[in-house]
Amino acid sequence: MTTIKVGNEEELIKKLASYIEKISNDAILNREKFFVGLSGGSVVKYLCEGLPLINTDWSKWSIAFCDERVVPEDSDDSTFGTYSRQLIPKTQLTKEQFIVIKQGVSAEEAAKDYTQKLKELFKSDNFKFDLLLLGMGPDGHTCSLFPGHPLLNETTLKIAPITDSPKPPSSRITMTYPVINNARNCIFAISGSGKADMIKRILKEKEDLPATRVKPEGSLYWIVDNAAAIHL
Ligand SMILES: O=C(O)[C@H](O)[C@@H](O)[C@H](O)[C@H](O)COP(=O)(O)O
């Protein structure tokens, strides 16, 4: 695990973008494709501001969601909807490059459908992402994997439904650890004093919380700004 400390949110956005540029270009050079998973929450802002600055072959990108809210695409809560409005117009990405959830169905059906879409994307049951971009909530959750929730121990489903998410909206789908920890790279990008206590509990005290359980086969990076790293 590598912890990268930066001064503030602006520097975090630039640092994150530079890592994504390098990882995407390595993947494209070696495998001619780049499979990336995006999160919602504050990561959306970091990516919508940082990604338009990078040099990459956008046509080689396939984009999935580490978790997604089961809501209509035009809802303000839809993670895809937000990237579609705020990122696509600033890059050469097209909507077709995003793996989106099925509309108008239950979380359970959306999770099954999403699993099938990933099988088609990877042409395999082995979902090997080049990079997962992760956030962490103030309770230590990541993706839609919340403290004490039975999904923390899910080993069969790769994409799971959740209908009791403590963070609204309650109905979501999420990657589970078998997919997260199979990734080539995972990056957490964390900014602000509201995350400082949890950063200490996870990175210093190594408390068993959902974000602590992210231990990918590949590389793990935590990019943390001064306000979030104050207790480290
Ligand atoms: O859809 C979501 O809610 C996210 O994907 C979620 O996993 C997010 O990354 C964390 O909740 C952190 O969110 P914040 O960075 O906004 O605290």
From TrEMBL:
Where do transmembrane segments lie in this chain? none
Gene3D superfamilies according to UniProt: 3.40.50.1360
What is the uppermost EC class here?
hydrolase
Pathway(s) annotated for this protein in UniProt: Carbohydrate degradation; pentose phosphate pathway; D-ribulose 5-phosphate from D-glucose 6-phosphate (oxidative stage): step 2/3
The cross-references to Pfam families, in alphabetical order and at most eight, read: Glucosamine_iso
Q: What's its catalytic activity?
A: 6-phospho-D-glucono-1,5-lactone + H2O = 6-phospho-D-gluconate + H(+)
The family line of this record is: Belongs to the glucosamine/galactosamine-6-phosphate isomerase family. 6-phosphogluconolactonase subfamily.
Keywords of this protein's UniProt record, alphabetized?
Answer: Hydrolase
Q: Cite the SUPFAM superfamilies for this sequence.
A: NagB/RpiA/CoA transferase-like (SSF100950)
Keyword match Nuclease: no
The EC number(s) attached to this protein equal 3.1.1.31
Role this protein plays: Hydrolysis of 6-phosphogluconolactone to 6-phosphogluconate.
What is the protein named? 6-phosphogluconolactonase
Q: Which GO terms describe its biological process?
A: carbohydrate metabolic process; pentose-phosphate shunt
Organism of origin: Euphydryas editha (Edith's checkerspot)
**Which GO terms label this protein's molecular function in UniProt?**
6-phosphogluconolactonase activity
Name all Glucosamine/galactosamine-6-phosphate isomerase domain ranges.
Answer: 8-222
Identify the InterPro entries for this entry: 6-phosphogluconolactonase_DevB (IPR005900), 6PGL (IPR039104), Glc/Gal-6P_isomerase (IPR006148), NagB/RpiA_transferase-like (IPR037171)
